[in-house]
Amino acid sequence: MSDVHLPSPATLAEQVRERLPHFGVVDWVQETGSTNADLLEQARLQVGGRGLRPWLRGAHLQNTGRGRAGRNWQNRPGQALMFSCAFDTSLAAAELPALSPLAGLAATEALRGLAGAGADALRVKWPNDVMFGEGKLSGVLVETTRNAVDRSAGHVVVIGMGTNLTDGEMLSRELDRPIADWAGVGATVPVAEVVATVARAWQEAVMQLQALGFHAFIERYARVDALAGRTVRVLDRGEVLQTGTAAGTDTHGRLLVRTDAGVMPVSVGEISVRAA
What we know:
By secondary structure, the chain is of the alpha+beta class. The chain contains 7 helices and 12 strands. It has helices spanning 9-19, 35-45, 99-112, 168-175, 182-185, 191-212, 218-223; strands spanning 25-32, 55-62, 80-89, 122-125, 129-132, 135-146, 155-164, 231-236, 239-249, 255-259, 262-266, 270-272. Helix 1 (9-19) crosses helix 6 (191-212) and helix 3 crosses helix 6.
């Protein structure tokens, strides 16, 4: 079984800090509203300087944590691994949407590297849900703000992730859909190693996106794509916008859906693989 025990916040912060010596700030608290919101606020107030990032902030409990589309993140103390990282980026505003699928890809690849026998079952559902089999394991949320010191210097991107540790079975019943947990993956690494590995993967991916564009990630995304070849529906507030076959991503990180009218790029919307 996985090592899913959460050390005390102070101990976990120390363990992560040892693994991420190049991060300017690493802290972990017992409870906060949202680690993403905390880092965004720090960036807007310019707490610390550009040279001090990356930052990492984690919490044992988030009482106002959100997923994509403003959904509440379901969590109980000690049952989810929740943290966010802040990075500087000089990406143009038009390139920022690619950060969302990029963050999901990087997290999935990082977890696969730790998962042992369970690695092949870890895949990413566009844009950035980490799946274990048919169950959602992790949710990722990407947000950006302008650099507070020099708006011409680009943006600060905050990437947050919540991973179910042991509550998959209970959440599956409560939500009436498959939910996975890290215990079920069967990895045997400390949670601090999970945090540090994902954080490093995000940092490297952001730098590569800045240098090479999302084109460099298309083949990598295809190798872990949970939707490829499956019939999907694109939903917006419950309304079906498109139905077709998922066909990978384009150079902007958009989902490609093959429909009767041709291949359509999708940049926003909820993706459902349930039968129409």
